[in-house]
Amino acid sequence: MPTSFNQSVIDEFRANGGKVGGPFEGGDLLLLTTTGARSGREHTTPLGYVRHEGLLLIVASAAGAPHHPAWYHNLLAHPVVRVELGTEGFEAVAVPAEGDRRTELFAHVVRAEPGYGEYQRNTTRPLPVVVLERSDPPADAPREIRTVADKLLEVHAWLRAQLDHVRAEATAHFAARSAHTGPGTPPAPGLGLQLRQHCLAFCESLEFHHISEDTHVFPALAERHPHLADAFARLRAEHATVTRVNGELLTLLADLATADPAHFLTELDRMTEELRAHLAFEEQTILPLLAEIRLPTAP
Questions:
Q1: Same domain, yes or no: 119 and 203
Q2: pLDDT tens-place string over residues 238-270
Q3: Which of 134, 165, 190 is the last residue of a domain?
Q4: pTM strictly above 0.70
Q5: Can you spell out the DSSP letters for 95-130?
Q6: pLDDT tens sequence across 228-240
Q7: In angstroms, rounded to a whole number, what is the distance separating the alpha carbons of residues 177 and 39?
């Protein structure tokens, strides 16, 4: 089967440290890997990018086509993406800008790359501007990852930080909405796309983490340490509880326009309480066991 044009660009990009020839020669190019909204499979797309005040921006232009490109629908469904920039690769949370923020960022994009203005004139849909927010480990994560215990602490630190970030963002978002409705008027429903993307990234990462533990980590440790059977039973039960709360949050995220702020904050508080207690007990129980497993030899 002949190699597609996109695949030839991807191969050249990876073979030459991010440099390519042809129509992209000399341009700012990155590779974006998203998870298929329907298929669940990974898809990599070469895209131009623009920097602005420390932000990394991409535009879902599709050269001015009438419909959004597939990669944009993918990142709405699964906000955690993989970015390759030069010789560097990292995970990011993809957050489309909204309202005045989108207008401001798109104006900067057009000043930097006027071709996007032409693409916008060719279509009636507003071209989405997506901010790629790098998902680095938080400051309290281990600086060196040598054992499986270090890796677990890094993941837990990221989950705690993301949960705190979502909670602060939700509080600010709903306070701002309430302030614009006037005295005596209940705040309008709705979550906002930025809050949705961050919360969805957290929910999906948490689900993946717990499935990995239930499928691989806990069975292996339980076999080696049968005297901790009751502890592993408790951990699995706590996973089930957190999964139910996670499912409720995902249901609320499914419809931005009608989501009830009070219900969302209640479920978010419940998630915070359940997850923090679970992570503390898990660290107390299995960190000493995982500290004995060096990463190069871990299964």
A1: no
A2: 999 999 999 998 888 877 667 777 888 899 999
A3: 134
A4: yes
A5: EE--HHHHHHHHHHHHHH-THHHHHHHT-SSPPPEE
A6: 999 999 999 999 9
A7: 36
- C-alpha 208/C-alpha 27 separation (Å) is 36
Tokens 């921006």 correspond to 57
Distance CA 246, CA 252 (A): 10
C-alpha of 161 from chain center = 13
> How far is C-alpha 47 from the geometric centre of its chain's CA atoms?
18
Angle between helices 148-179 and 193-212 (to 10 degrees): 160
CATH number of domain containing 111:
2.30.110.10
Q: Give the containing element (helix H, strand E) for 271.
A: helix 261-290
Residues 6+ apart with CB under 8 A from 10: 31, 44, 46
Amino acid at 13: F
Q: How would you class 121 by CB atoms within 10 Å of its CB: exposed for 0-12, middle for 13-18, buried for 19 or more?
A: exposed
Q: From residue 225, give the alpha-carbon distance in Å to each of 9, 212, 239, 291.
A: 50, 19, 20, 14
Give the amino acid at 107. Answer: A
Return the structure tokens found at 79.
Answer: 């906000």
- Residue 128's domain comprises 5-134
Structural domain count of the chain: 2
Contact 170/144 with Cβ under 8 angstroms?
no
Yes or no: say if 194 and 176 are a contact pair by the CB < 8 Å rule. Answer: no
